[in-house]
Amino acid sequence: MTWLSSWCLMLALLFVQTSGQETVVDIAIDNDNFATLEDALTTAGLVGNLQGEGPFTVFAPTNDAFQAAFSGLGTSLNDLMSAGNLTGILQFHVVPSRVFSANITSGLQLKTLEGRNLTFGVAGGVVTVTGGRGTSATVTSANISASNGVIHVINAVLLPPPPETTDEGNTNEGEENIGGEGDNQGGTEQEMPQQTVVEIIVSETSLGRLVASLNATGLNEALESGTGNFTVFAPNDEALEGIESVEVAVLQKHVVPGRVDLTNGATFATLLNGTNLTVSVSGDETQVSVGEASATIVKTMNASNGVVHVINAVLNDSGVKAHCSILVAIFAAMWLMMA
């Protein structure tokens, strides 16, 4: 047994010493989850650049992240390349320095190879990255070390901000058409939501009780002043009937850092440390759950800094367990009285 343990330790040390010898591109090529990223880098001619000395920090979208972006934009990899946008988008995911998650703090801004900044948020140990055009992503796997940098896996594609307008009113470098045919920048800018998640919650008539709890706990200020995006699962007045005020820890279970896609089986860390929210999709119905507590999404509203999903129940697992404990105690007492 001692010999086997020594052999395993030696293999582990050997792995640690050699795992950082691949470049950031080599790691992407060796991982099937980055197949679309590999195709994009090859198409854009950036493979050689990212195999250089660096260092680079790559925020690497998964295959699913790219597919969601293509679907949302109504475009494809080849269309982006033809429009001259692909190289800039990929460069917007690369920071020309080695940045580990321990070095990332809320409000931090890092300049990318594309020339514009990424903005970071940290809440409950979860790192979010915000780009332009209302895009943001959550870091799902951090600190994958390479010989020339580090990779952080993200769950969405980040788009650069719209190009600056010249004195003549024209945009620079023809980058205005990132989406599909007919999707010009002017139209995109006009359609972007102007209200924050808090402003939407305040203006939604079915969320009056939630507004009172957000104000009482001060969470409204955190959602309003935070640099990152938020996905808020907002219990409606019917769900909060009879509840005067909701504790901040319970409210935090209803907020996921970043703007996330609700796919069946997806799990996201909430603002309450150690608490995850799980998504279940069946036909046209989407449910979310925290532990044993679940709710159905009845309405969705996009915001300038995230998205608000109105739900028909409170996601308070501890409350569910407490009610169950009370019922068990009642039944136990009844059984003793009858015995």
From TrEMBL:
Keywords, in A-Z order: Signal
Species of provenance: Tetraselmis sp. GSL018
Endpoints of the signal sequence: 1-20
PANTHER family: FI19380P1, PERIOSTIN-RELATED
GO cellular component: extracellular space
Keyword Magnesium: no
Keyword presence, Signal: yes
The protein, known as: Beta-ig-h3 fasciclin
Domain FAS1 as annotated: residue spans: 21-158, 194-315
UniProt cross-references to Pfam families, sorted A to Z: Fasciclin (PF02469)
Residue span of region Disordered: 160-191
Highest taxon above the source species: Eukaryota
